Amino acid sequence: MHKLSNKKRLVIFLLLGVAIYFLSGAVDELRVYQGASVAVFVVGISSIILLTGYSGQVSLGQGALLGVGGYAAALMRIHYNAPIWLCFSAAIIVAAIAGALLGLAAARLSGPYLAGTTLALAVGLPSIANQFSLLGGEQGLLFDVGFPPLSLGQDFTQYKWFFWIASLATLIAIFWLQNVMRSRYGRSWKAVRGNDVAAELAGINLTRNKTLAFTLSAGLAGLSGALLAMTIGTVSPSAFPLSLSFSLLTGAVLSGVTTLGGVMIGSVTLVAIPEIAGAVASRLGSSEAVTNNLPGLLVSALLILTVLFVPNGPVEQLRYRREHRVKK
Amino acid sequence: MIQFINTILIGLTSGAIYSLMAMAIVLVWRSTRVINFAQAGLALASAYIGYQVMQSVSNYWVALIVAMFAGAALSALIEIAFMRLLLKHTSSGPIASVAPIIATLGLLGIIKAGIAMIWGGQDVVVKPPLSNTGFSIGTHTLVFSPMKLAIVISVATLVLVFSVIFQRTNIGLALRASAFAPEIARLAGVRVDLVRTLGWALSGAAGAVAGLLLTSNGNGSFSPESMEFSLLLISGFIAAVIGGLESLVGAVIGALVLGLVTSFVLMYISGSLFFIAPFVVLLLVLFIRPQGIIGVKAGRRA
Amino acid sequence: MSLVVKGLTVDHGAIRAINDVSFTVEKGKLAAVIGANGAGKSTLLRALSGLNSATAGTAEWSNHNLLHGKPEAHVRKGVSHVSEGKSVVAELTVEENLDLGALWRRNRREATESKNQAIELFPRLGERLSQRADTLSGGERQMLAIGRALMSKPELLLLDEPSLGLAPLVIEQIFQTIRGIVDSMGLTVVLVEQNAMGALKIADTAVVLNLGRVAATGSAADLIADPAVRAAYLGY
Fold this sequence. Notes:
The structure holds three protein chains of three kinds.
Chain A: H1 6-26, H2 29-54, H3 62-80, H4 84-106, H5 111-124, E1 141-142, H6 158-182, H7 184-194, H8 196-201, H9 206-232, E2 234-235, H10 242-255, H11 263-283, H12 288-309, H13 313-327
Antiparallel strand pairs in A: 1-2
Helix pairs in contact in A: 1-6, 2-6, 2-9, 2-10, 2-11, 3-4, 3-5, 3-9, 4-9, 6-9, 7-9, 10-11, 10-12, 11-12
Chain B: H1 2-32, H2 38-57, H3 60-89, H4 99-119, E1 124-125, E2 136-137, E3 140-141, H5 146-168, H6 170-180, H7 182-187, H8 192-217, E4 221-222, H9 227-242, H10 248-269, H11 277-288
Antiparallel strand pairs in B: 1-4, 2-3
Chain C: E1 3-12, E2 15-25, E3 30-35, H1 41-49, E4 56-61, E5 64-65, H2 71-76, E6 79-82, H3 94-102, H4 108-121, H5 123-127, H6 138-150, E7 156-160, H7 168-185, E8 188-193, H8 196-202, E9 205-210, E10 213-219, H9 220-225, H10 227-234
Parallel strand pairs in C: 3-8, 3-9, 6-7, 7-8
Antiparallel strand pairs in C: 1-2, 1-4, 4-5, 9-10
Helix pairs in contact in C: 3-6
């Protein structure tokens, strides 16, 4: 994917879109729904890849930003009955604004301080919904994207509709993100990540650079949140818990946090693990407690193993090995 | 007036508990230069072990002591088995600076899942040994009970004990030297690795007390997914940062400040904003005085 | 009971910092190790004290293999290393820095004696016992570092560039003190220095390192008189 021209990439994405179209017809309801979940994670994880992998800022609070996007989308729908694409756009914009504010604050922070601050945000932000009745309190708000248009046929299910919307949004988002990463912004983030003192001396405005990364990353997170809201039909504080932020971070690390190429790996893993774990647990005849928590255990263990042994992610690792083999 | 006093008392009590968690974070930070988010998980696990002991022995103090030892042992185990491995493998690479943090989060996840698997996902209740009914002053009831008083006293005692250990004993000197200048300490003959593990063990013990006292503070129930736990997690960290991350006294002050502020927000502003208050406090502190209340201005925060 | 180094080789990644270095220091003597910057002098000491691991060779002191084991263990066998850069712990007081050196010692009475001896040797430290180490001047810090090393009751003392960054008068003092330590306490000292003249003047024997290899060895007096050494390191 690295050396392809923009036109070639566009073609590839279009082909992907077509493939997904056919795929959705071939698999059953559960898979289609899971596909939508994968899409949610792809966007969410890529937001972290942008923020942490490229810009080097670790955020434990993406979940909160997903929440902002989700709520924005739901509010647009409920109060203005806006069309879906407008709701999603609102989600992106509102979340991006939140990200910009957060980024301005975070530009001065680094490492554990940034991690802790975003962690505090992740814990605190969702519960604000209880404060303002506009936000629906503990029960939350409904987010209903409506039924698929009749033009798609009688058999076109709700879940397929989710999947289509999510996939389309994801393809567009990832294509756009790739463009950004290859642009001079992407390069300047990498420069700052590598050595921020040197980058500053080379003329890069650190605050603007970092805030921009936060803003864009938040926009993506907002989109992911809106997609999540779509798939579960509601937004509420409990839909955006701390564990969501952790899962996204885990998915990013599993994918290889510095590059977009492996983003599917993390996303699919996050969706597949609960199912695999469930199968394993029932095969072993385990209790409910074990079954419920085995996915969490496996994901956490995977995270640790990845950080220890494959810190750059499988995609980078392969690339590294390939380059070194050629050199010999 | 009575509400004002109650607010302060609530703030002090929760602040006292958070201070133990904050001290645990500072202890680990000083000895290994790592923010170990999993310490909160250990605190939780120790509390559960304490709960288990309560089920069989029905003696709170025994449960507390066992929990402290369990916390110390688990913490030391993590340092030996996990941290050394982690620091060796993550010393380079683009995410080198954040890799340890992420790994401790993974560890936290494992601990939480482990707890839920062993004890089931529901809240556990640890019955406190002293009554939780508030003292009465005239016709009013204070939100301050014998148990809460005991909490404040125990925390104060522990803080005192730790201070004495660190400032006035040989082992304390070894701990401080190993944290400030490990290479020099080695050359002076200090078994830095052993001392580091001891630092972690002390951290684990402090966290264990925090965890167990937390169950005796409010409604006495606790679970990995509960808000109380998330609060403990972030408050410990935030308090440590407010205090400057380098000193135990700072951690205590930071925790008390945090406890009081959140208490006032809860009582006088709104219950729902209670959870976002720590974030705001942290942000304010990092802006006004990035090195914390007691911290010394360093060149660059590594 | 001398320090016998044979074929010592130390790598820093791909760079061979020390290559096949051999020399002997007899008990009770002061050996100077001189050479240009980057010649490998510090690496030599760090290998001897266990901070860096050696790739090849042996280093024996009093029947102990110095190349195996952690620095903490070597201290207990009588090896004390004052690393470069005035190695004191800035956040601790002067007294705490001294105490640090004797923490591992069982006999507390003897430890207190050592502290009194150190204070006798460096009276300035005695005046500043409760001050933080980072309030000391450069020379005082170097004294504190050496004092701390002496608190471990060493028999072999490794000193890494004690004169670095100090005023000439202070350097003179420190060198005299080091010579005095050798004479009065019977310690064996390996003194790594860039200040070649000063080091050679107080040393018994000397080793000249160049690019990680031994360029010359011999008695200090001989080397001072050697024209090649003079030209390269003594400036005349």
